[in-house]
Design brief:
By secondary structure, the protein is an alpha/beta fold. It contains 7 helices and 7 strands; from the N terminus they run H-H-E-H-E-H-E-E-H-H-E-H-E-E. Helix 1 runs parallel beside helix 3. This is Methyltransferase small domain-containing protein.
Amino acid sequence: MIPTPDLSHIKKQDYDRVYEPAEDTFLLLDALEEDEKLIQSLKPRICLEIGSGSGCVTTLLAKIVGDSNALFLTTDINSFACETTRQTGLQNKVTRIEPINTSLVDGILPRLKNRIDILCFNPPYAVTPHEEVGSFGIEASWAGGIDGREVIDELLPYIKDILSPQGLFYLLLIEENKPKEIVEIMKNQYGMNAMIIMQRRAGREKQFIVKIHH
């Protein structure tokens, strides 16, 4: 059992500027822990979390991977989230986190084409008006537009070019995002393997983890 990363360095008012870990975060952490031995067996060299927020997920992933020369890249459109991610790593004695202040995978491709061994994304999945998508502040962490899918759908075409041949992608979704439809899109449009590996109800939300690989 790997302890949840220590976030005591993040002040209460900081959560006005960066997403506070909640049930969705913990479901993603549980999925990574469940696959601990599989992840370790891959001996990941480069891991990427899109939309790292507090840095909680990448920090736990680094603990799972353990002592190695693996590099942990993160992206976030919110510059405060990038700095918070770095600090969360340091708070938990993880020094190999490299935050990049960018949107989704801008700046990652083509340089790291088919190089990412573990990819994680807890996307902005809330159903919101289209106009709320693409902010640079805290709203960017939840505003997902139509069906909560606008940001997710923007990323899906890149997955086959991001993942290494043995790479794994852990994607968090809610029921409104139509997770079964996403599984079918990844299989039929992009020729990838995709399956729902975990689901949990959190209040009124039903949350899912979809795992995708070549």
